[in-house]
Amino acid sequence: GAVVSQHPSWVICKSGTSVKIECRSLDFQATTMFWYRQFPKQSLMLMATSNEGSKATYEQGVEKDKFLINHASLTLSTLTVTSAHPEDSSFYICSAKSGGLTDTQYFGPGTRLTVL
Amino acid sequence: AQSVTQLDSQVPVFEEAPVELRCNYSSSVSVYLFWYVQYPNQGLQLLLKYLSGSTLVKGINGFEAEFNKSQTSFHLRKPSVHISDTAEYFCAVGGYQKVTFGTGTKLQVIP
User: Fold this and answer.
1) B-chain residues near A95 (CB < 8 A)
2) For chain B, first and last CA: distance in Å?
3) Which residues in chain B touch residue A102, judged by CB atoms under 8 angstroms apart?
4) Stretch B35-46: mean pLDDT, rounded?
5) Calpha distance B25→A3 (Å, rounded)
6) Which of A30, A37, A48, B71 has the fewest CB atoms found within 10 Å of its own CB?
7) Cβ-defined contact of A49 to B104 (cutoff 8 Å)
């Protein structure tokens, strides 16, 4: 089956620093990648959708200048949390799909971000 | 617009007993439905999906779900649960590009 990896799996950083999270599709080309945020005991909230080579589409309420998304290749997307604050602490999950409307999204294992 | 309702936040069940996790959806476009499982501190794994065709969908780990258009439901079932099924289960509805997730149901299998 399709595999999506995320790196790092967990990160602790100081308030005010920036953190980059990578999402890679290991055995397929991901035309579309998604970034989600999951708060404790809650569901996944879609943050943004990115298509390779174009700007990400952000969901309402998500600050695009704070959560920078780059999808430079068909196998890699990055999420950079800029000037992180404690309230940005969360579980960030990416997913990727290769085809059209009905194609399955394959999820990465998630990255636990803790901002001190 | 699309939305998913998972009425039960937690479902305790004894090992080897059957279980049903409920999911109701609404969507103004064609309906694609999914069930995902999430183990602690991990990402989501697809259990099964309904795109079209037979309304009874079989997935991995012995799970199955039935699409009921008139009741706008997509309940997940397993005839006999194992301890290893303890996890959180998310129902999701997909439309153009976007997938909307329910709030999840935590399945607790009691030995």
Assistant:
1) 43-44
2) 41
3) 32, 51, 94
4) 87
5) 28
6) B71
7) no
Cβ neighbors of B92 (< 8 A, separation 6 or more) are B4, B33, B34, B35, B36, B99, B100, B101, B102
Contact B43 A46 (CB under 8 A): no
Q: Checking DSSP bridges between strand B105-110 and strand B10-14, what pairing results, if any?
A: parallel
A4, A105, A110 member nearest B42 (Cβ): A110
Residue with tokens 């085809």: A99
Distance CA A49, CA B15 (A): 40
